[in-house]
Amino acid sequence: MNNREFIAELFDQLAQGNSQALGAAMAEDCRWVFPGDWSWSGVWEPRSAVVDGLLRPLARQFADGYRNEADLIVAEGDRVVVQARGYATTTRGEPYHQTYCFIFRIAGGRIVEVIEHCDTALVERVLDPLIPAPLIHQAEAEEELRAESGHARVGK
């Protein structure tokens, strides 16, 4: 199975509400990145921090589960980019209809990195802040990403 098929299969499971499939697809050293300067921005790693510090606290905010449907999947090398839509209702009864762009990095048939872009205004308006905060401060994470990609910091 190639990387695109791997992620397409994962999103088939997520569309059916099987949120456990995401954790099962991650490598032990998986890293999850929310870029930017907002209450949820940061980096979680390894997999246990992603699951316990991000995914489970997020799931607790939803009343009746969560579905995520891929609209577009594009793959090149070890990267798979997914444009997707998520659907849930919060425990306060508010709709959480999110739009996403996920950038997955795959190695050894497992997800080793996720960079998630989403409607941050919706998150701030509808969801409670994450406690505890991400394990790595956002500025440090962005500097690491720039160093890994070979791009110098241009300024703030």
Automatic annotation (TrEMBL):
Any matching Pfam family: SnoaL_2
InterPro entries: NTF2-like_dom_sf, SnoaL-like
Residues in SnoaL-like domain copies: 8-114
Cleaved signal peptide residues: none
Descriptive protein name: SnoaL-like domain-containing protein
Protein species of origin: Nocardia aurantia
